[in-house]
Each structure stands twice: as C-alpha cells, then as structure tokens.
Design goal:
single chain; mainly alpha; 3-stranded antiparallel sheet; 8% strand; transmembrane helix; transmembrane; membrane; Phage_Integrase-like_Recomb
C-alpha cells in the first residue's frame, strides 16, 4: 500500500490473489483474501485513497422500462405472478425514494402507511445512518404506471426539480460529491453556464 497511488491497485492485487487461490481450488473460506487482515488492508486503502468519483449509468429510456414492467408482471407462460409484480413495485418505490436495494430490503409490511396523496414508511437503518436513528420516507402518489430506473434515474429527475438541499435530504447523501455521482449534467445545462455570461 505504501507504493500504491489509488485504491484500485490494492483491489486489483487482492483480486489477483483471490483468483490464483480459486484456480488452485482452495476452498473459499480458506482463501487468504477472506481473512480479517486482508479485509482491514482493503478498508484502509479505501480510507487513505478514497474512491474515484464515477457517474452512475444514464437512466434507462422511459418507454423501454415501461414496456418491461408491463411485460414483467406475467411469467413465461403468460400467467399473473405476484412475485414479479412485487419486484416491479419495489423498482418503482426504489426509484421514487432514491433508495438502495439495501434500504428496500429493510422495509416490512407493518412499516407501510398509505394515504390518498402519498405513502410513508420507516427505515430503521440506512447505509449512512451512523447513529441508527432510522428515518421516515415520504413518497408522493404518482400519476404514471412506470419509472425510469432506481436510485440513479430517480436522483437525476429529482435533482432537476427541487433545491439541492432538499435533494440531498431525500437521497440521504452525506456529501455533495457522493450525490454528484448520480447526476450527470446535460449538454443544455453545461451550455447554459457560458450562455449566462452573455458575451
């Protein structure tokens, strides 16, 4: 780690060691990269070098996802499937709430409250909830039958329609740089900066 200049060097070395032992058919639980020492080295490298800012993938075209959700509620025989419908509902809630899957899987039926204009649920823990205080999430009733994508697609849409402070609160981002990974400015937004100079 002393000669490394980024976390990816440590991650690549750890991956190579894992692969060599995997090819040699060493049982996974005996692989040295699973040891507490190796985990600690990887975590320290993350803290020391930080992670590079990567923009998330662009949102899926709405028409494509709409067709997917409409088709997804039936199984391969064309019969209604409650499990598939549940997954489609989870996708919609994750998008509207800017939720990670780790947040979504913590929601239980007793925590959901439905009203005529919105729904409310309690998340007892979140990835960045250091003090385990939990949080109440509010999601407005939508007028459409589909959504663009989960956290990244929802973040892009929400960021364009509200103040940055509200956006940060809704998505539970700790830092601006973490939130900016989910937003890629459009060409129009970038051009508007120099257009404002009116030269």
């Amino acid at each position: 780690m002393d000669r490394a200049d980024s976390f990816s060097v440590v991650k690549t070395a750890s991956g190579a060691i894992f692969a060599v032992h995997d090819v040699a058919m060493v049982p996974r639980e005996q692989n040295p990269t699973k040891s507490e020492l190796c985990k600690a080295v990887r975590e320290q490298a993350k803290r020391k070098f930080g992670l590079s800012v990567k923009h998330k993938k662009a949102a899926m075209p709405v028409a494509l996802l709409a067709a997917g959700i409409r088709a997804y509620h039936t199984d391969s025989r064309g019969e209604f499937s409650i499990i598939r419908l549940t997954v489609a509902c989870m996708a919609a809630v994750m998008w509207a709430g800017c939720l990670r899957y780790s947040d979504m899987r913590m929601i239980w039926v007793g925590a959901l409250r439905f009203y005529s204009t919105h729904m409310v649920f309690l998340l007892t823990t979140r990835k960045n909830d250091q003090y385990s205080e939990g949080d109440v999430v509010y999601i407005a009733r939508g007028g459409k039958h589909f959504c663009p994508s989960m956290r990244s697609g929802g973040a892009k849409v929400v960021a364009q329609r509200m103040s940055f402070a509200k956006f940060m609160r809704h998505g539970h981002w700790v830092t601006q740089s973490a939130a900016m990974r989910y937003i890629q400015p459009s060409t129009e937004e970038r051009v508007s900066v120099t257009a404002a100079a009116e030269y």
